[in-house]
Design a protein that fits this description.
The protein is of the alpha+beta class and about 290 residues long. The chain folds into two domains: about 150 residues, Jelly Rolls, CATH 2.60.120; about 100 residues, Arc Repressor Mutant, subunit A. Helix content is about 45%, strand content about 20%. It contains eleven helices and eleven strands. The strands form two sheets. A seven-stranded antiparallel beta sheet has the order 1-2-3-10-5-8-11, with helices on one face. Strands 4-9-6-7 form a four-stranded antiparallel beta sheet, with no helix packed on it. A hairpin with a 2-residue loop joins strand 6 and strand 7. Helix 2 runs parallel beside helix 4 and helix 3 runs antiparallel to helix 4.
Amino acid sequence: MPQSYVKISRLPISSSFVPIYPKQITELLLYVQRVGLTYCKSDYVVKDRNTDSFLICYIVSGKGFLDYDNKHFQLKKGDIFVIDCHHDHSYYPDKNDPFVLLFIHYHGPFSQKYTKLIINDQIVYHQKVLVDNIRNKIGNIYRAFRKQAEPNHFTLSNMIYDLLISFLNQTSQLDQKEIIIPNSINIAIDYINNNYTSKINVTHLSKLVLTSEYHFIREFKRYTHQSPYEYILYCRFNHAKELLLQSDMSISDIANKLQFNSISHFVSFFKKRESMTPLQFRKRYMIKT
């Protein structure tokens, strides 16, 4: 799948990546508009409004300032700020200790709703557990571009979705204390992510994390806001779209690969979520090369 990528460097050590996508991708998926690491000079400033983008930015080191919707924020190492770039905003470094920024601009279906939920009443976040988690996820996306000139669209979309859902999950639980997602839930999520094309059931997952099925289902839903089965279906659905657009596999083969009981079950499931059959989806969005 041919693509073009532009690498931007403000300073020799700074780098960012601006992917160029086919229209079909921007209609279907969450996508990266720009991701990078910027070592700011003392006169660096971003001042804009009504930009069609959403931004999550981590302060790697140094200090700076953010003005957003007539509010002024001081920024320091370890902070993260989240903004809807359609609003008036500017950010700039402390002249005596310019900040270094790890950032991602993103867009796509429901990106505005996700961002609005994250921002809520808070723009700048300091909580260490949350900040460390989100920093790592932005860093993983940035490294994906540095390692591979053309990262897979669906992989990137899943990484952004994971970033936003993790942010929402942790911000919704910030109640004067930092909430840590249990290791058992992280183990289960990683297992599902790596094995959703195989047969997976709650019995197996609960044994994997050494707990009862009832307790596992309750805890999984508490931290992910969906049941284990719903999360498995989410992974299979995203992979189904990837196979429909990026392979010549038949509908029957895709249904079998993703553990659906029959073609009719797969078609019914897909149509319920996408409002079209798998074949209609393939014909509409297949990228012609």
